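Q: Predict the bound structure with iron/sulfur cluster.
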Amino acid sequence: MNKSPQVSVRTMTDQNLTDFIRCPYRFFYTHIEKKKHPLGWRQGIQHIINKVVSSYFQLPQSNRTPANVMKLVDQYWGRLHLRMFDSQLQYYMAAAAVTDGLMRNLSSESEIAQPLFLYEKFKMNLKELNADLSLTFDVAEWQQDTFIVKKFLVDADEQMLELYCHLTVVFSEKVFGIRPSRIEVVTLMDGERHVFIPNNDSLEAGLNYLHMMKMLLEDTNRFSDLYNMNECPACPFQDDCDRDEKNEGKQKYLS
Ligand code: SF4
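A: Predicted complex:
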């Protein structure tokens, strides 16, 4: 990392915020310095999950069966390489957990005739933050005069769940003028379904949260207080990372 790099955030996306929560240095190397790095197992699996969920909802409703979920997982899982994983055991355990989780969760969604959004990415300018905001809605289902938003993730900790809910509420209210009635996040590695019900205070809480995140993203001096060493063993930047250096000087822009 360059000496005390200043970061000016012009665009906040679900991806760069998630990476920041996992590790601020990793966010810096990936989204500011744009260093190339091999796809990790988590990203690889997330890509497969997105493909399976998207393909599933494009099937005719009568074909949305557990057997077809399994077929789709089989079809896409072969794109992952064993070398992306720490061990063969991890590879097979992940395959079992994701297959089981998708079969259970997608089969219960077979009554959705046509999702309102299916992996649709939206971008908006948020003047309160003087930044653009970008978010992908995995699956949204229209219900009476509002909608339900669903997301399927490999895994997520409390901070990531909080981030996703705030982003979804702010985006829905600011872009569509509608508060979602429910936000559901399924974390497939542990098989959990996390449900959030936004209320009247959620928009303000979301804006405050995003304001705080923007300040953290731009304050590289605090990165050393925020990184999580648990992320290091599987990190592609281990050899380049100067996580303990505090430096000065260069202006960088995230766009
Ligand atoms: S090695 Fe650790 S501190 Fe450095 S970027 Fe990777 S996860 Fe972050």
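A: Helices lie at 14-22, 24-32, 41-58, 66-77, 88-107, 158-176, 202-218, 223-226.
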